[in-house]
Backbone:
C-alpha cells in the first residue's frame, strides 16, 4: 500500500471493500486480517505467555477445529491457551483464538469449552473486531494530514486491535456471537445446551471473583446473554441426542493436564 | 439474583449439583409445571411475572419452585435477567454507555500495557505446531461421537424490556 496510496486512502478503500461485501472474504482481505491478527497476538502474548503444555494445546485445537472446519471460511484457524488465571477468551482477526487457562478451567465439559470457542469463532467470521479496527483507523487517518509508513500503519492497526479487547465490542456483536456460535457448535455435533452451562457458571462467579472482571466489563451480563439466546429460540431447537458421555473421559484428561501446568 | 433469597438459592443449587444460582421471572401468561422434563403430567401452573427459584436444569428444561409448587418447565418460559420485585441491585462497577459495555473497571490488559508490550512473534509461530491434521481431526470427531448436522441459524432476539434492559 505504501508508495501507491496514502495510508488514509488505503484504509478507507479497504474498509469500503469489506463493508460492501460482508459475507465474502476475499483472499486479499483475509491476508490482511491474518496479518493484523498475528501482530495483535504477538502483542497479547508479549504480555501473557502461552501455557507450556503441548497435549492440552493440541486438544484445544482439535475442539476448535471440529467447529471451525465446518464453517467453510478461508481462515487459517489456530487455537491456543494462555497461562492466565483470568477468565476470558479472545478472537483475533484472521482466525487466531486465545483462551485463558482460567476460562478452560471454568468449563465443565468439552461441550462447554466448545461453546466458548464457537463464540470466538463467530466473532472472527463476522469480523467484529476487524471492522471496528478498520473503522477507527480510517477515521483517524482521514482526519490526519500526517502520512505514516506501512510499518507504522500496520503496528497502529495491531495496537488498535489489541486495545479493542481491553475496551470491548458493541453488545449487539456479543449477542450475535452467542447466537451464531451456538449454531456452529450444534452443527459440529456438540450439545447447544452447553451454552447455558457456561453462562450459568459465569453468572455464579459474577461479583464473587475478580478473575472475571475484565470479561464482565467487556460483555453483557451472563444472564442477559442467556435471555437473549432463549429469546432467539435456542430452547426450541429440535436436535437429536448429543450427550457428551463419549467426550467426558478425554475432557477429564485435559482438565487434569492443565491443572498441573503453568504458573497460574 | 440480588434478592433476599440469594443464600437459599445458592445452597439449593449446589445441593442439586447444578450450577444455576439464579431466580427467574415467568414470561408467559400461564406456564404449566410438569412432573418431569418434557413430561405430560402437569403438577401446577404459574402466571406471568411470578418469581421462581431455579432448582436445577436438564438440557433445555428447568425445575422451578414458585411458592409451594415445584415442577419442570421449558427454560424459555423464564427470564433470568429481570430483577426480583423489591430487590436491590449491587453495584458491580459495570456501566454501559450506549451499546458499548464500559471497561473502566477492567483489570488485566490495559491500553498502556498493550502499547508497551514487547511483541512475541515466536510465540505466535509456536501456535501452528499444535494445529491438528485432517486425519487427527476425523479420529477426534469420531471418538467423541460428533456427527455433523443441519441446524438453522437462530433469529435475532426481539428487542424487549425482558431481554434488552440496560445493564
Residues:
Amino acid at each position: 500500500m505504501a508508495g501507491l496510496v496514502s495510508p488514509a486512502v488505503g484504509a478507507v478503500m479497504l474498509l469500503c471493500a469489506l463493508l460492501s461485501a460482508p459475507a465474502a472474504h476475499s483472499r486479499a482481505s483475509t491476508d490482511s486480517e491474518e496479518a493484523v491478527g498475528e501482530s495483535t497476538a504477538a502483542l497479547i502474548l508479549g504480555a501473557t505467555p502461552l501455557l507450556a503444555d503441548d497435549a492440552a494445546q493440541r486438544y484445544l485445537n482439535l475442539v476448535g477445529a471440529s467447529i471451525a472446519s465446518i464453517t467453510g471460511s478461508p481462515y487459517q484457524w489456530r487455537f491456543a491457551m494462555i497461562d492466565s488465571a483470568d477468565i476470558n477468551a479472545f478472537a483475533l482477526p484472521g482466525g487466531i483464538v486465545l483462551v485463558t487457562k482460567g476460562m478452560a478451567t471454568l468449563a465443565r465439559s468439552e461441550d462447554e469449552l466448545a461453546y466458548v470457542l464457537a463464540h470466538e469463532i463467530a466473532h472472527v467470521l463476522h469480523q467484529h473486531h476487524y471492522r471496528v479496527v478498520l473503522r477507527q483507523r480510517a477515521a483517524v487517518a482521514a482526519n490526519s494530514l500526517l502520512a505514516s509508513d506501512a510499518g507504522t500503519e500496520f503496528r497502529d492497526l495491531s495496537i488498535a486491535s489489541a486495545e479493542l479487547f481491553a475496551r470491548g465490542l458493541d453488545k449487539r456483536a456479543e449477542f450475535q456471537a452467542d447466537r451464531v456460535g451456538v449454531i456452529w457448535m450444534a452443527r459440529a455435533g456438540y450439545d447447544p445446551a452447553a451454552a447455558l452451562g457456561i453462562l450459568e457458571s459465569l453468572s455464579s462467579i459474577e461479583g464473587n471473583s475478580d478473575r472475571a472482571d475484565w470479561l464482565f466489563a467487556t460483555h453483557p451480563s451472563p444472564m442477559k446473554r442467556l435471555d437473549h439466546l432463549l429469546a432467539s429460540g435456542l430452547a426450541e431447537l429440535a436436535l437429536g441426542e448429543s450427550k457428551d458421555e463419549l467426550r467426558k473421559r478425554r475432557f477429564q484428561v485435559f482438565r487434569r493436564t492443565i491443572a498441573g501446568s503453568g504458573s497460574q | 439474583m440480588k434478592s433476599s433469597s440469594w443464600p437459599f438459592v445458592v445452597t439449593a443449587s449446589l445441593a442439586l449439583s447444578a450450577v444455576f444460582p439464579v431466580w427467574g421471572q415467568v414470561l408467559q401468561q400461564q406456564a404449566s409445571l410438569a412432573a418431569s422434563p418434557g413430561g405430560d403430567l402437569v403438577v401446577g401452573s404459574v402466571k406471568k411475572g411470578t418469581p421462581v427459584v431455579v432448582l436445577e436444569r436438564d438440557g433445555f428444561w428447568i425445575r422451578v419452585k414458585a411458592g409451594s409448587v415445584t415442577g419442570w418447565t421449558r427454560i424459555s418460559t423464564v427470564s433470568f435477567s429481570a430483577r426480583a420485585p423489591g430487590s436491590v441491585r449491587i453495584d458491580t462497577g459495570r456501566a454501559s454507555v450506549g451499546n458499548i459495555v464500559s471497561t473502566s473497571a477492567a483489570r488485566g490488559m490495559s491500553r498502556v500495557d498493550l502499547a508497551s508490550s514487547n511483541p512475541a512473534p515466536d510465540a505466535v509461530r509456536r501456535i501452528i505446531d499444535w494445529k491438528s491434521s485432517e486425519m487427527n481431526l476425523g479420529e477426534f470427531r469420531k471418538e467423541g461421537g460428533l456427527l455433523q448436522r443441519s441446524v438453522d441459524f437462530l433469529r435475532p432476539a426481539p428487542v424487549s424490556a425482558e431481554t434488552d434492559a440496560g445493564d
About this structure: Helices of chain B lie at 6-15, 111-116, 121-127, 134-143, 161-164. The CA atoms of residues 29 and 48 of chain B lie 5 Å apart. Chain B touches chain A through 76 residues (CB under 8 Å).
